[in-house]
Amino acid sequence: MKKRIFACIAIVLLTGVFLGFAQALLMPKYMSASREGALIGEYYNESGSHDVLFVGDCEVYESFTPPTLWEKYGITSYIRGSAQQLIWHSYYLLEEMLKRETPKVVVYNVLAMKYGKPQSEAYNRMTLDGMQWSVSKTRAIYASMTEDEDFISYVLPLLRFHSRWSEISGEDFQYLFSRDTVSHNGYLMQTGIKEKTSDRVGTELGDYTLSSVCFDYLDKMRTLCEEKGVELVLIKAPTNSWGYYWYDEWDAQIIDYAAKNELDYYNFIPLAEEIGIDWSTDTYDAGVHLNVYGAEKLTDYFGTILAETYGLEDRRGDEALSDVWEGKLKTYYKERNGEK
Amino acid sequence: MKRVLCILLSFFSLVVMISCSDTGTTENADYSFQKGNVVIAVNGEMAPILEALGEWIEYNESPSCGFTGMSKLYTYAGFDIETYPTDGKDYVYRVELYDDSVATKEGIRVGSTKAQVIEAYGNASEEGTTVLTYRAKNMYLRLLLSAEGLVSKIQYLHPNAVDN
């Protein structure tokens, strides 16, 4: 009888180990391609709290550089951005982060307000699979799933990624148990330059009303920040290309919402020249996103606002903190100078 | 022992069945634009269209965040075609007729009246003050109207371009 019980336990354990190994092997690693997929999980390696947290889509993780914010203003920050991060993703990520730390300012980029419905399973994965299990993650999954998705495939990603058998490469074995850090406190560096040559605007829409679902989540974000005593600041990055166009009609709705709820909103599109953005050198993809040179200019500009308007103190006098950020700056400049 | 193995095998089979289930179907678009002999339909593959239409007037592209591939925008006389990338190929995402040099198969062009549109297509699935939207199986046809009630743009749209 005992032998049978041991045999059963052994079989269950072996099956579990096998399935766990298969899952770890088959999950995308996001190390050499689509590095954006690794961003969300990297937050858990970060210790300590931050003065500023950014949430939002590619326009946060390509537009602001936390090392610059520290180097020039002594402000600590982290960007919890991901590709096509929708507002419910941002809300639940924020909910999760505010259980771990209490920043002074939370910055939300409003471009994703254009999406009132779940869009893409692939983008969902890039945000949700990186989150550690929590009530926030569970709620985020339910809020995000497209019609073709099942909750179970988030619990057991093997169900989703089993077909990657045929694509397995050396990278899957190399990063089986640990990953490299791809970002600088959530900033994904791009050093390439590709001039913006087209001023084409977005296509005309039939209806410019931003979804009420998005405003509901913005309300939730605002309430959450209020409860924690955190200042919520809305921004729109200075990039504005035909593929990701920010319409004046949308802007007016954000301005109105911010005014009604006594929030600050900074639309950096009309401020690009004042910030010093040069569209021939400060973008790596013809104006869709900023490269590191453009991001540093915007960060410098925004750093002044953070310090002067929100009273964020210069913490460079804190020795322990300085040591940590010196290390971060070294890594940052190594990549910026092409040494990585 | 056999029972345990059976349970484990059943569980594993269930897992495989769930994971291998079909998740989507593709239907043909009901409305499409035709330029000469070239039919341009939402979700249609762009390569043969590109070859048949010849040189464009203007070309723009926009990278998608996080994935390889570009959204592409080709401008021809009277109309634009925007594409989306999937598995290394480009497919039609949006066709927009922007002037009266081209018309839909149903004879509607920029400058047509709202009454002519309704005569050609019937009542719209959704109607706003400056927009008529016709929902088809796997796409939308949207006609934008000026303040005077004349068609200003005609758009054949992928559902993602509308259902945001």
Percentage of residues in helical conformation of chain B: 10-25%
Q: Which range does the strand content of chain B fall in? A: 25-35%
Largest interface: A-B, 47 and 38 residues
As residue ranges, the low-confidence spans of chain A are: none
Number of strands of chain B: 10
- Rg of chain A to the nearest angstrom? 21 Å
CATH architecture of chain B: 3-Layer(aba) Sandwich
Count up the domains of chain B.
1
- For the report, how would you describe the main beta sheet of chain B? 8 strands, antiparallel
**Number of helical segments with 4 or more residues of chain A:** 15
Helix content of chain A: 40-55%
Number of strands of chain A: 5
Low-confidence stretches of chain B: 12-29
Question: What structural class results from the helix and strand content of chain B?
Answer: alpha+beta
Characterization of the model:
The complex is a heterodimer of chains A (340) and B (164). Chain A has 340 residues and is of the alpha/beta class. Chain A has a single domain (38-149, 180-336), classed as 3-Layer(aba) Sandwich (Rossmann fold), CATH 3.40.50. Chain A is built from 15 helices and 5 strands. Chain A has a 5-stranded parallel sheet, sandwiched between helices. In chain A, helix 4 (66-73) packs across helix 14, helix 5 (87-100) packs antiparallel against helix 7 and helix 5 packs parallel to helix 11. The model of chain A has no long low-confidence stretch (mean pLDDT 94). By secondary structure, chain B is of the alpha+beta class. The termini of chain B are far apart. The longest helix of chain B is centred in the first third of the chain and has 18 residues, at 2-19. Chain B has a single domain (33-161), classed as Pathogenesis-related Protein p14a (3-Layer(aba) Sandwich), CATH 3.40.33. Helices cover 21% and strands 35% of the residues of chain B. In chain B, the strands form 2 sheets. An 8-stranded antiparallel sheet of chain B has the order 3-4-5-6-10-9-8-7, covered by helices on one side. A two-stranded antiparallel sheet of chain B has the order 1-2. The chains are: A alpha/beta (340), B alpha+beta (164). The A-B interface holds A 4, 7-8, 11-12, 15, 33-34, 36-37, 57-58, 82-84, 114-117, 119, 122-123, 126, 148, 150, 152-153, 156, 158-160, 162, 198, 200, 203-204, 206-207, 211, 241-244, 285-286, 288-289 and B 1, 4-5, 8, 12, 15-16, 18-19, 23-24, 60-63, 65-68, 71, 73, 80, 82, 94, 96, 128, 130-131, 133, 142, 144, 152-153, 155, 160, 162-164.
